[in-house]
Write a structure and sequence with these properties.
Number of strands of chain A: 8
Strand content of chain B: 15-25%
Largest sheet of chain A: 6 strands, parallel
Structural class of chain A: alpha/beta
Oligomer: heterodimer
Number of helices of chain A: 13
Radius of gyration of chain B: 20 Å
CATH superfamily of chain A: Thiamin diphosphate (ThDP)-binding fold, Pyr/PP domains
Number of domains of chain A: 1
Order of helices and strands of chain A: HHHEHHEHEHEEEHHEHEHHH
CATH class of chain A: Alpha Beta
Strand order of the largest sheet of chain B: 3-2-4-5-7-6-12
CATH topology of chain A: Rossmann fold
CATH superfamily of the largest domain in chain B: Thiamin diphosphate (ThDP)-binding fold, Pyr/PP domains
Order of helices and strands of chain B: EHEHEHEHHEHEHEEEEHEEHEHEHH
Number of helices of chain B: 12
Strand order of the largest sheet of chain A: 2-1-3-4-8-7
Strand content of chain A: 5-15%
Structural class of chain B: alpha/beta
Radius of gyration of chain A: 20 Å
Number of domains of chain B: 2
Largest interface: A-B, 53 and 51 residues
CATH architecture of chain A: 3-Layer(aba) Sandwich
């Protein structure tokens, strides 16, 4: 964090081109407006199942993904809508997936927790806590194997650090020098359990010391520039040295764990949430950009109107998209003609 | 035709497919320097190098998941489990990740991966090292499941599994590695999902797979000699897709069936096969179908009891006599 502030003093935004600054702001605004619309659509029953919103954490996705190149990979857990959008998936395809429609990125088969888009190397959307960390290591293994200079960015939540897959993945990634950037989004709570109540070590980045101690760092996850700078360093290290990095981004989700959960209650107070909202990642970034003269309040309003229009368009598109018909039931269980079922017949025959 | 062991047939399949496609690589515990716990990967590290024959830490969930990720990013991994008992630690990677990815991504990310290793009982390995995993995987849509009984099928099925674009669970017989048999020269592929008549017979069909094929053949020989009953032994070879058509065709010829498996009876492979028979060949049956399976207990260490738990020829002969009304 300190290093970012110094460089900002030296060169207002660490040498980040204005175009990239605006891209990050727009990515955060789009994420925020998209998730607000998602909550609204969920409440009127257009979206079902488990639905985990990203509101409050936008700086992590925008800062981190903004440091990647087009050929790099992104893999994440189930709080995945914003990361999908920031990576370049269209709001239409993400919203249609949430609505369970045929024009969704996964043809309505995956829903909220399973966003995928091979065209932008967005590899899901994984619903079991920790399960995708070894997958990220495997993508890294493939990169070394194929001798390309790609990297993998792997997001996950704070609860993951207490489970086996975290350690198994870190060990292999470090030992075989795989170009994986692990970003833990530490929002302090695994569902409704304060991380301090279940983790032996509350400074999560120190967990990596057993594997790649010198390549772990902690950043303010509400500061998009700090996240961007840390991930950019990690990307360079991954491309040139093929080394993994572990970044702890300290962030905060404003809403409940999922749409089924209250924003505050037994595990955290209304006051705490209100206090965290004071350091809102979008507002603070807007202030910095306007103070520096990169854009005016009118520009921000105009950008906001644009993303709201994009989100409204996505919702209308999703609403109009057909629901999957019965012919989709067996469509992608296998990639060949075998469709499952005992000898291809249905159980009721 | 050459006569080779089941182990060498698997080794040949690995070597041929790794030479054929440089995206294919092998990973697992002891597969490299040690040549594999059962020597299936003998010589491959020297031939292909460490990025293609990767010794892993003892972390099944981790390295199985690594395989899935590598498959999503363009490779064709073969994950060896030292035994399928240890793969329970990787069940999440196999069931939640490999089997679901193509589906959850709406057909964008297929997972061309083979999970292989020995299953079933060996000799006095007791409760945690003697399990038959077949139904645990055959139950899962998104997976294909093979269980070869002979060297020729081990070779041909493993090659097909490696070329398959979906995840394949490949269950070898821990006691079959030294079994010898004729193997065709040149390219030999056995399609996944096709059963094979290992012995022809007109009086009763014994439907089985894996190690139990050999038990069925022993039983069939004794039935012919002692009772002049000619049993057809149908080897399923694959459990998903299950070749129901061949089962039904055989039962329609013989009008009687015994379904044999090494694993536990409840919700076993045999339960599915019997359901298919009663559905499709009810009118051909001259007797209710009998099932022979392992006994419904964890495996005992004591040899005296282990012998009673794993089916041998005797219970198969008894079951055949029962469905032929000879008891």
């Amino acid at each position: 964090m300190a290093s970012t502030e110094e460089s900002v003093a030296k060169d207002r935004f660490g040498g980040i081109p204005e175009e990239k600054l605006l891209w990050m702001l727009r990515a955060m605004l789009l994420s925020r407006r998209f998730e607000e619309k998602t909550a609204e659509s969920y409440q009127v029953g257009k979206i079902g199942g488990f639905c985990h919103l990203y509101i409050g954490q936008e700086a992590v996705a925008a800062g981190a993904i903004g440091a990647l190149g087009e050929d790099d990979y992104v893999i994440t857990a189930y709080r995945d809508h914003a990361q999908a959008l920031v990576r370049g998936m269209s709001a239409r395809s993400v919203m249609a997936e949430l609505y369970g429609r045929i024009d969704g990125c996964s043809r309505g088969a995956g829903g909220s927790m399973h966003m995928f888009d091979k065209s932008v190397n967005f590899m899901g959307g994984h619903g079991i806590v920790g399960t995708h960390l070894p997958l990220a290591a495997g993508v890294g293994y493939s990169i070394r194997y194929r001798r390309t200079d790609q990297v993998v960015l792997c997001f996950f939540g704070d609860s993951v650090v207490n489970g086996g897959p975290f350690h198994e993945a870190f060990n292999m990634t470090a030992k075989w020098e795989l170009p994986v950037i692990y970003v833990v989004e530490n929002n302090s709570y695994g569902m409704g359990t304060d991380i301090d109540r279940v983790a032996a070590v509350d400074q999560l980045f120190t967990r990596a010391c057993a594997y790649e101690g010198k390549r772990a760092e902690q950043v303010d996850g509400q500061d998009v520039l700090a996240v961007h700078a840390a991930v950019e360093r990690a990307v360079i290290r991954a491309r040139t040295e093929k080394r993994p990095t572990f970044i702890e981004a300290q962030t905060y989700r404003y809403l409940g764990h999922s749409m089924s959960d209250p924003a505050h209650g037994v595990y955290r107070s209304r006051e705490e949430v209100a206090e965290e909202r004071e350091r809102d990642p979008i507002n603070t970034f807007v202030e910095r950009l306007t103070e520096a003269g990169v854009l005016t309040d009118d520009d921000v309003e105009e950008m906001d109107r644009e993303v709201i229009a994009e989100v409204e368009d996505a919702a209308e598109f999703a609403d109009a998209s057909p629901v999957p018909g019965p012919e989709e039931i067996y469509a992608h269980v296998y990639s060949d003609e075998y469709r499952g079922g005992p000898d291809g017949r249905d159980a009721w025959r | 035709m050459a006569v080779i062991t089941y182990r060498d047939a698997l080794n040949r399949a690995l070597r041929e497919e790794m030479a054929r496609d440089d995206r294919v690589f092998l990973l697992g515990e002891e597969v490299g320097e040690y040549d594999g716990a059962y020597k299936v990967s003998k010589g491959l590290l020297d031939e292909f190098g460490e990025w293609r024959v990767r010794d892993t830490p003892i972390a099944e969930n981790g390295f199985a998941g690594l395989g899935v990720g590598a498959a999503m990013a363009g490779l064709r991994p073969i994950v060896e489990f030292m035994t399928w008992n240890f793969a329970l630690l990787a069940y999440d990677a196999i069931v939640n990740s490999a089997a679901k990815m193509y589906f959850m991504s709406g057909g964008q990310y297929n997972v061309p991966i083979v999970f292989r290793g020995p299953g079933g009982s060996a000799l006095q390995l007791s409760a945690q090292h003697s399990q038959v995993p077949d139904p645990w995987y055959a139950n899962i849509p998104g997976l294909k499941v093979c269980s070869p009984a002979t060297p020729a099928d081990a070779l041909g099925l493993l090659k097909s599994a490696i070329r398959d674009d979906d995840p394949v669970v490949f269950i070898e017989g821990e006691l079959l590695y030294n079994v010898k048999g004729e193997v065709p020269d040149g390219e030999h592929l056995v399609p996944i999902g096709v059963a094979d008549v290992k012995r022809e017979g007109a009086d009763v069909t014994i439907v089985t797979h894996g190690k139990m094929v050999h038990v069925a053949l022993q039983a069939a020989d004794r039935l012919a000699k002692e009772l002049e009953v000619e049993a057809e032994v149908l080897d399923l070879r694959s459990l998903r897709p299950l070749d129901t058509g061949s089962v039904i065709a055989s039962v329609r010829r013989t009008n009687r069936a015994v379904v044999l498996e090494e694993g536990w009876p409840i919700s076993g492979i045999g339960a599915q096969v019997v359901d298919d028979i009663q559905r499709e060949a009810f009118d051909s049956l001259d007797a209710p179908v009998a099932r022979v399976s392992g006994l419904d207990v964890p495996m005992h260490y004591a040899r005296s009891l282990e012998k009673l738990i794993v089916p041998g020829p005797e219970p198969v002969i008894e079951a055949v006599k029962h469905v032929c009304y000879l008891d």
